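User: I'm curious whether this sequence folds into something compact or stays loose and floppy. Could you predict its structure so I can see for myself?
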Amino acid sequence: MVNWGNCRPQLWNQDHWELAKAYMPRGQAGVKGAELCDASALLNLLNFCSHFNYVDQHCVREVIRCRNELMHSCEMRVCDQWMRRYQVSIQQLLQQFTHLPEVAAAGQQILEMLAVDLSVLVPGVDRVDGSLLEGVEPISQWEADLLRERLQELLTDTDTQDTEELLRLRDFLLANRDLSDQFSSELQTITSMETQMRRRGRE
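Assistant: Here's the prediction. I'll summarize afterward.
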């Protein structure tokens, strides 16, 4: 799998990053370094590039599988058992890179984050003893980042675009005023795409 639009092949012999982007999902052309990449891009690089054959590919694919399960869930809800399985898969992948100080430091931060209770309580939906919980944020920043990442994937990869999932995510965002403000540009893009599809349907 090579995404030619991500990179400039004429620079491969002098800029390894241009070659790395060829193994990433579409939409990475303007990304200038690994620190600016999302998780999906880096995981795809590890999975598809033969340079990383020394890495246990089962560990890579397990993290990808867990990530996709979460990213493809409109409700962004997982059980405790799933979180434990995800933590184990992350740990096993990180162990492949213990020789890199930067990865070791980032790995510790990741594990600390996974140990935090990330349960989300939505006002008007979640109640305790029949009473509405006041002052609870409807969605965490961590979940908002995951949601934004998934939206960007869906909006960028037009060849395999899942229109139904896009519309479900739109409805989810519109149902939450804070999220609809936070994702206003993505919502405008989805609305524009829906309008174009309706026009094509009438032609």
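Summary: The CA atoms of residues 12 and 19 lie 5 Å apart. Residues 1-53 form one domain.
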